[in-house]
């Protein structure tokens, strides 16, 4: 009965609690993308978009809608040979929110991104906990993505 009461109390208090996120990791994101029903493409490149279209943060708003922003990603996509295939495409940037917490990305920044393929389009998801976009990726993160793609080991960094 105590467990049920605790669960009920957590449900009722939910909106007042802080968002708790697990630190994003390239290997975990790669595994999640590989296991998903959706198709993902891994790209290392520079994201550009109209920064003015990114809504302002407002922690008092508990019902923030997701925002779709036209963007462009230019770089190289990942294949078994590494980051070698040119990738220069218009994409959709989906800024997601959970309660008052929303994802954020910046224009003109280098990203390692897991793009979701949606028909002929690509969608970059920017959620409040990150995980699908890694800004200014280190060489270690790029090597980790390459290693995952080649089935040479895909363990989270410690």
Q: End-to-end span in angstroms?
A: 39 Å
CATH topology: OB fold (Dihydrolipoamide Acetyltransferase, E2P)
Order of strands in the sheet with most strands = 1-2-3-7-6
CATH architecture assignment: Beta Barrel
For the record, the CATH class is: Mainly Beta
Q: Give the quaternary arrangement of the chains.
A: single chain
**Mean pLDDT over all positions:** 84
Number of domains: 1
Element-by-element helix/strand order = HHEEEEEEEEH
Strand and helix map with partners:
Elements: H1 2-13, H2 26-35, E1 39-49, E2 67-79, E3 82-95, E4 97-98, E5 101-102, E6 109-118, E7 121-126, E8 133-135, H3 139-149
Parallel strand pairs: 3-7
Antiparallel strand pairs: 1-2, 1-6, 2-3, 4-5, 6-7, 6-8
Helix pairs in contact: 2-3
């Amino acid at each position: 009965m105590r467990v049920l009461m605790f669960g009920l109390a957590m449900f009722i208090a939910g909106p007042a609690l802080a968002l708790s996120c697990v630190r994003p990791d390239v290997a975990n994101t790669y595994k999640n993308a590989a296991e998903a029903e959706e198709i993902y493409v891994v790209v290392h490149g520079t994201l550009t978009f109209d920064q003015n279209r990114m809504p302002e943060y407002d922690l008092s708003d508990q019902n923030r809608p997701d925002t779709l922003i036209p963007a462009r990603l230019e770089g190289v996509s990942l294949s078994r040979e590494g980051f070698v295939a040119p990738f220069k495409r218009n994409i959709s940037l989906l800024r997601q929110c959970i309660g008052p917490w929303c994802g954020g990305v910046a224009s003109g920044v280098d990203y390692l991104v897991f793009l979701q393929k949606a028909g002929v389009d690509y969608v970059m998801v920017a959620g409040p906990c990150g995980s699908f976009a890694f800004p200014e990726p280190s060489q270690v993160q790029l090597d980790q993505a390459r290693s995952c793609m080649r089935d040479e080991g895909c363990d989270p960094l410690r």
